[in-house]
Amino acid sequence: MKTCWLHQQGNQDCLLFMAGWGMCPEPFQDIPSGGTDVLMAYDYRDMDTGGITSFLRSNTYRKYKTYKRLHLLAWSMGVWTASMLSRHDELFDSRLTTAIAIGGTCHPIHDKLGIPEHNFTDMTKRLSPTRLEAFQRSMFSDEQEANRFTASFGKGERSFEEVHQELLALATAYTTYTTYTTDKVQPNVPNIYTSRIVTGRDQIFQARNQVRAWGRKKCRTLSLSHFPFYHWPSWSAMIEELKS
């Protein structure tokens, strides 16, 4: 697991952003902070959470003062991955002011509660640079936003091989930490979220599966595509809307 500061200006608020599979910092770097520091976690080829756990425990980083408020925004496969962090830090969720899940669930590989298992397995076996690009474009319903993402992602240093390895690693990790029974699947990760946002126009995590995973009365559906981040003018504006 890698981390990268998207914004580090000594603000009183800090956002821990747990990105989805196959991401790199570049598509997110031009989103203004709006007055919050933003630490991004990505590249889940390994689940070494030591860096993030240490950061949360100290609630400080280098010369900056302790943050008054820590927010979590977990997206896509990052929703499950963030919950994994709590297995390594029993006080994980208590350190957070808000914990928001968007466009993902704690059951990321599941026919009714996440991405259908056949679709996920097919992706791991048949992924190619062309299919990866098609997947990325399917995260959007707006062509202009898709082009913006593609242009910035192309500036990153992640190779196709890295991204494919990450997909395989996530599949293995999910299987390792999931208990299978005859009638249901129980994820061995807690639901740590104070706000659960369903992306209503999602072509990756179907909206109905997200609703089933969280419970209709425990989530909120917004008319957003899977990659929703260009919808807001800043990170702080995003958090302000999603946490309520």
TrEMBL record:
The EC number on file is 3.1.1.85
Q: Read off the Gene3D superfamilies from this record.
A: alpha/beta hydrolase (3.40.50.1820)
Keywords in alphabetical order: Hydrolase
Q: Which SUPFAM superfamilies does its entry note?
A: alpha/beta-Hydrolases
**Enzyme group, top EC level?**
hydrolase
InterPro entries, per this entry? AB_hydrolase_fold, BioG
Q: Which GO terms describe its molecular function?
A: pimelyl-[acyl-carrier protein] methyl ester esterase activity
Keyword GTP-binding appears in the UniProt entry: no
Q: What is this protein called?
A: Biotin synthesis protein BioG
Q: Which organism is it from?
A: Candidatus Electrothrix aarhusensis
